[in-house]
Amino acid sequence: MPVLVRIPTPLRALTKGNAEIQAKGETVDSLVDDLERQFPGLKDRLLDEAGELRRFINIYVNQEDIRFLQAKKTTLKDGDEVSIVPAIAGG
Amino acid sequence: MEKLNGLRCRECGRHYPAAPVHVCEFCFGPLEVDYRYDALRGVVTRESIAAGPPSMWRYKDLLPIDGDVAVGHHVGFTPLIRAHNLADELGCREVWVKNDSVCHPSWSFKDRVVAVAVTKAREFGFDTVACASTGNLANSVAAHAAEGRLKSYIFIPADLEQGKVIATLVYSPTLIAVHGTYDEVNRLCSEIADKYRWAFVNVNFRPYYSEGSKSHGFEIVEQLGWRTPAHIVVPCAGGSLITKIWKAIKELKLLGLIDERRGTKMHAAQALGCGPIVTMIKNDTDVLVPVRPNTIAKSLAIGNPADGYYAYKTTKESEGSGEHATDEEIIEGMLLLARTEGIFTETAGGVTVAAAKKLIERGVIPRDESIVLSITGNGLKTPDALQDRLEAHVKIKPSLTAFDRALADLKSQTS
User: What gap in Å lies between CA B415 and CA B413, rounded to an integer?
Assistant: First the structure.
């Protein structure tokens, strides 16, 4: 299940500067595990001590906030695009 | 005077040098400007502030500007109005309206944040500013970019009110209408901000930008004669304004400019069709559940507010509350403020008035305590909201007879 993952600037130190990487996973949960295998330390940045997505990180699958889908259990298919985006202000 | 220590993560406390960055690399928490309050104490006084200009820059020592103000010299110091008629209507003793609907130059409180962000963009040497906006921010960024001779890229949801589109285009920015909600525009901008080296006022300049909102709070306190009101009702979109007004009050206490014991309760106002922050308050949870906005209050239509958590915490810490307003109540709120005080606010102001009214009726805000309503935007930008609600005007031929007849008709209708 290769999907394209967009990495925000604050995490690129861990991905050797890559803004886009290929990763695998049946769900967002397992995608995070694959990201950790490829880039050790990334999981800690995305999930808190309880294993929940950190408060100020949003994950989108094909532009849709996963909280509108099945959160971390959201399933992924070939060619999906996943964006990791820090929360931003606005108005 | 060295007043800044750079930036600091609000969550984990890590320090960062002052730079155009907004997110903690370790925990993704938002970065905030870190002031050296010890250096400011005794230097920033009621007198030093009163000696400043009649604008938000009288509080420049408490804003993250190192050099001279680059744009927006006349922003802020908007009227704080004792609203006797509205108070009578609401059955309250003391109601004030902080009227940012007449903020110079683009008629909303956003001028406060943008004047800081664009000045800071110039300090950091950027030649292009940008933003994602529900309208008011678009107007303000385009206006201040024009003044600062900077290029601007403005991203808005494609269904934005025409008034707000025109009030942006007039300044000749590059305006990009995105088919999607504000939250989708915002996500896109976050990715664009990562790719292009622009000063995105609400993304990489957020730590500086958001500080500008404090001036709304400073002014309320100074204009009340260095007294804090018992209640402030604030409209919430991203949740930053209410957080920063609260911060302003705390800073004034820290600097010894106001009585530390007097409490102010902060109340959040949101539309029922997009009220995730008020929902947190009502359910007493710090977990924000994002929503898909469906409200006429488009300037507040942020379903995934970045500062929602802090807005919730602000109401909690200040022992305040929050209330939702339906679209109908929003219209009624706009009409009530116009009818009683002669102030024409946009839908967001209608939300504030409506929420305040409900909080008073519920007994959450006691009728004998002082209340300030934050009115943040101008009604002339969103006339469409009222189009179907206002009675048609009388049309006559230019003759006295025609007028006499029309007047008689009107009188018979009302009698």
Answer: 6
